[in-house]
Design goal:
Oligomer: single chain
Number of helices: 10
Number of domains: 2
CATH class of the largest domain: Alpha Beta
CATH superfamily of the largest domain: Zn peptidases
Bound molecules: zinc ion
Strand order of the largest sheet: 1-2-4-3-5-8-6-7
């Protein structure tokens, strides 16, 4: 009899030993910490050639905000972010599911998006695990980044968890976001939240007709797949990112409160199924609709490749060296391509380049002596007034092999400078939003308490194992004692 108890006990112990590490590693608790998520994004991107990620600026704590891009640079641009409120981690989980589907599903819709669109993801606008940006030097909650944008900014009390900052754009994160809107000019921008929903809302001050098209197309996609779409409305801006995005030229800007059930603020494992099966498909339908509607003709996208020609393609003479570049035109067409060059750090001249073939442009620079470091840049302006450039430095040119023929390198699309803040377009007056109708304006709309962090709700192995060990030893000792006593009695 006691033997059975002992066996049962050891079975339970063995089961616990197997389960606890699984819970810890995310099998039963699939939500991730900020660090885990960053690692996941980097790993996903690193395993897919042709994608890239890079820093777009710094958080208030000085670390780098990363943007992950994929697809066709000349395609329709769609930008989605998450975790502008640092504790709304589920938005980030949904964005990751979306990215995974895009890069790894091999779904024909995903493949088509990668061919037709330039997709930009900012998984973590706020790198803190609290709602605000945790800058407690001015407010105990830090600054609520989605109250710190310029359009509709309102002064508020530093004691509020929705504190809007000392001035509009006082926070580095909001300035970085504006530089992204201005530099990349996506057709669509989505700001993902979770807690006060579920619903989707587009900004009234943007291109309402285009936003309505997204809504209609999303309904169709949902109907075809048996998904219930998000309730969709529109609202204004009280210092929200969607207001500034529209002000800076993004045509259709959205805020999605992905979830909103009472338990959404806790990292409860059982919610992950709802996230994957209910809310992520709703978001994906909107994403797909936007990708379809973001026509390349709306874009100023273009790429410059410096054509690092084999030496044999270079025109060489006593006095000059030809520089050729391949320029992929934007939708509006190329206005000018100019070549700037400097030798040993001193600017020399700026010359126009001539189109010598389909997308191939050529200019010439004088032959410098072999000890000269020649730096040149090719600057392209399109008819939409957008400028991109690409530059290269040639140390001590020998003119026998001026360029490395094997490694043509694409230039960055555009360098994003987080500061200074780009010149503003005339402010589009946002229709005044009524605080009572605006789903996100009441400061207390979203629960104010920080969600339980994963580390709070699941004990670490280091904490659990000693406890289990002690209990085990105690139980083994007790069982053995009872067993021996019974044997003695029998005896
Ligand atoms: Zn939020």
């Amino acid at each position: 009899m006691r033997l059975k108890v002992l066996v049962a006990f050891f079975l339970v112990f063995a089961l616990l030993s197997v389960m606890i590490p699984r819970v810890q590693s995310g099998v039963f608790d699939p939500f991730h910490t900020k660090d885990e998520k960053t690692a996941m994004w980097k790993e996903l991107w690193s395993s897919h050639p042709g994608t890239e990620y890079f820093s777009v600026g710094k958080y208030y704590d000085g670390s780098e905000m990363l943007m992950f891009v994929a697809g066709n640079r000349t395609g329709g641009r769609v930008l989605w972010d998450a975790e502008m409120h640092g504790n709304e981690d589920k938005g980030g989980e949904i964005l990751f599911l979306l990215a995974q589907w895009l890069l790894e599903s091999n779904d024909s819709v995903a493949r088509s998006i990668l061919e037709q669109n330039y997709v930009m993801f900012l998984p973590m606008v706020n790198n803190q695990a609290v709602r605000g940006n945790n800058d407690t030097s001015i407010s105990s909650f830090g600054v609520d980044l989605n109250r710190n944008f310029e359009v509709g900014w309102q002064k508020s009390n530093p004691a509020d968890d929705t504190y809007s900052g000392q001035n509009p754009l006082s926070e580095p994160e909001t300035r970085v976001m504006r530089s992204i809107f201005a530099a990349y000019q996506p057709t669509f921008y989505v700001n993902l939240h979770c807690g006060a929903g579920p619903y989707a809302a587009f900004y009234k001050g943007g291109d309402v007709a285009l936003s309505e098209s997204v809504k209609n197309r999303t309904s169709q996609i949902c109907e075809e797949s048996g998904i219930v779409p998000y309730r969709t409305s529109s609202f204004g801006s009280n210092g929200y990112s969607i207001g500034d995005a529209a002000q800076l030229g993004v045509q259709s800007t959205w805020l999605i409160e992905t979830v909103g059930e009472a338990t959404a603020w806790r990292h409860l494992p059982e919610n992950y199924d709802a996230l994957v099966n209910t809310y992520y498909p709703k978001c994906r339908a909107i994403f797909v609709a936007m990708c379809e509607l973001a026509s390349p003709t709306d874009q100023a996208a273009k790429v410059v490749f410096i054509n690092q020609n084999p030496a044999s393609n270079l025109v060489r003479s006593q006095n000059n060296v030809a520089v050729q570049a391949t320029v992929t035109p934007s939708a509006t067409g190329i206005k000018s391509v100019t070549l700037h060059y400097a030798s040993n750090g001193v600017d020399q001249a700026e010359v126009g380049m001539m189109k010598i073939g389909e997308n191939v442009w050529e200019g010439s620079i004088p032959a410098f002596s072999q000890s000269t470091s020649v730096k040149y840049s090719i600057i392209v302006e399109d008819n939409g007034g957008n400028i991109v450039s690409s530059e290269a430095t040639i140390e001590s040119p020998s003119y026998t092999v001026l360029f490395d023929p094997q490694t043509p390198t694409p230039s960055p699309v555009r360098t994003v400078e987080p500061s200074p803040i780009p010149t503003l377009r005339p402010v589009q007056t946002a229709p005044p939003s009524s605080p009572t109708n605006d789903p996100t304006s009441p400061p207390k709309q979203e629960p104010t308490s920080a969600p339980l962090e994963k580390t709070d709700s699941s004990y670490s192995l280091q904490q659990i194992y000693p406890v289990i060990a002690v209990i085990s030893v105690a139980l083994v000792a007790l069982s053995s004692f009872l067993f021996i006593r019974k044997q003695k009695r029998k005896a």
